[in-house]
Amino acid sequence: MKFFVGSVLAGCALAQTVAPAGTELPGTAVMPRLETQDIIDGGTRKTIKHGPWVMPANKMTTKTVRGEPPCTSCYITAIQAKISFLDGKEANADQGAWLHHITLGKGLSMFWAAGNERPTLRLNRKHKYGLDLEGSTSAGGGFAGLGAGLTSAGGSGAAGGSGGLLSGQGSLFGKGRAAKRQLGLSSGLFIMADLMSMAAEDMQVTLDITYEWVPKTNTEYKGAKMEWLTVGEPKAREGTYKFDSQKWTAPWSAELLYAIGHMHDGATHSSLFLDNKEICRSIMYYNARDGYGGAAGEGHGHDMEGMDTGAAEHSHRRRDRIARADNAKRDGPSHLSDPGVCENFGAVRTGQKLRMEGWYDTAKNPLMGHNGELEDLMANMRVYMGPT
Ligand SMILES: [Cu+2]
What we know:
By secondary structure, the chain is mostly beta strands.
């Protein structure tokens, strides 16, 4: 494994340039890959493969899976996901194979999500918490809390759109109503994955999700809850700017176990605020490990076939920007590969408010295009808390 935290920090100037001198906010470190971590507290680790599926050339495909959770009477303590080719090799952006988004939920309650950065969740490195899929995993109060999110549309601040996970504008996927219909009667596990191809030919992939869990007979453990802060899905534009989420008020006191940003290319960081004090700055690292750079997925010459002039212009501009940025920073085109994680970074008390800001700087990191169009932006943070 070539990737580890030290190399990211040493190899990337962002950590120094983004954080003002004197601040030592959590969020610069990257969680080690699960395969390099020891199993904690005698847990079970298992990878479940879904598919195989065809990723049609140069298209976005959404796959939905419903089934049983990986374990019963258990606390899920770690999660990681990837897509693989049928020969078992990981499929990633350098092959034009993006696991653009993945969301895991139980019933109507979402408990984990990620983008192509494919981050690792771990909730028990210090405290004894895991996700209890037989209880409520939603910080907003389970079904009722998520329900409120499902029906609220927009209504946030500058970004113009927030609300719950699956509500139209504010959702990770922006597929609110369809998802609600599909999931409304399901009490089992659901998985939604956006597979995005930037390759010229069809590919076959499997979705591989790795879980680690401990049995509930381990009575030291408690169920963690997750709150989803989001700015919605604003349109991409050039420049340096930020988006704000709505505020969330804590209904109880809890340990702050884990928080991480999901953003798109162009982003620099997601910041988490507790009563307006910044407590976590999830730094976005680019091309920090294998799979995110290189030429195979990035030529985009095929993007221009059949496109109108405007789309072709986008493709040109993107290539130009990639070349410019990469000359300054690294060897080849690259994509967002590793968000910094804030881990065991304090506590929240009943009545305190959490909110987030998502920052972009497209001179530092080029925006992302697909089929000649710029992708909409995202900035969300999933905040896992361990109620006391
Ligand atoms: Cu996204």
